[in-house]
Design brief:
4 domains; mainly beta; Phage tail proteins - horseshoe like beta roll fold; Phage tail protein beta-alpha-beta fold; 11% helix; three-stranded mixed beta sheet; 13-stranded mixed beta sheet
Length: 367
Amino acid sequence: MANLAPDQEELTIVSGGMTLDGWEEFRVSRSVEQCAAVIQVGMSERYPLDLQNTTFEPFNPLVAYLSGDLILTGYVDRYMPSYDARNHPVVMAGRSKTEDLLDCSVDIDNLGGVGIPAWAVVAPTIGVAAERICTPYGITVTGDGMSAPLDATYPVPVNPGMTCWQLLEELARVAQVLIWDNPQGQLVLSKVGTTRAATALVEGVNCEIAEAAFTADQRYSDIWVVSSAPSLTNLGHVSFFARKHDSAVPRKRILMIVMDNLGLDGSNAPQRRADWEIARRYGRSRQVIITVTGWRDGSGTLWTPNTLVSINAPRLKIKEDWLITQCDWSRGQRGTLTALHCMPPQGVTPEPFVPVLPIPGIIPAQQ
């Protein structure tokens, strides 16, 4: 991509057999914590009196580019025209192809393999499981987390009415990977990013607007995780109790968590949960949104979620390497901007999860 000044960059949308650009106001957003990227465009109706010739028809495929770089492949969700005495504005909203995973229920007719109905997923890796869930909706799966292992002897059940996203989220927590989408509309299974952005975010250089939040209300000095499981050797239960201390919390604050399901390796599950709670709560307690001019870093690459970036913002008391978790590329009255949502990588690490073991004879385990 040739170097362009921010005000020379354009959003181009292809939909309904038309290629349209020249937008004055729009926003595209993608996040490692979001199933489907979102686009919203404000415009004036080009065919105000033609009932058959709308610019965007709901359900139409939609492809969006930021100055030639693909940014979203999906569908038109909403077409919202309005008018007054002077204007006839229209708002169009769409999402990535992965929106069907967020909105739609699991197709159990293919969950056990091609043409094999099942009420549970049994697979050697999360990639295999995700492909079974996504294939009926025409969505492909990619990413460096596809080979993350699952226990092929431990079924993950499907509750009636469960959406594809709800099931995928549970599987991702078991496999400890992130799930989101890419510009091609594919489902991405990835590890927490280690690739570094080409440009640092430096106060007084490229940070146009910045706002940070440092919070204490969701942090605790001690996390206690308690649980119990049936014992095979007597009529009672075996109790489990794990503790984790956070020395960075200056006063005594205890949070006790009851963990209902321990899985097959129950003795380790409470400690993993306690460790995760401390790390996650630290990461979520330190967040910043930095807005920069333009859509690209210094190498000409579009700013990208799941990328590490060096932040040097003395007035915000930040000089650390944090993870870009969300990018909002926009144009409006304030210009051509990207809002970068950042936090320590621990803030997006998936929660350890142990699925409930199906009852034999009710939910069959398939191979």
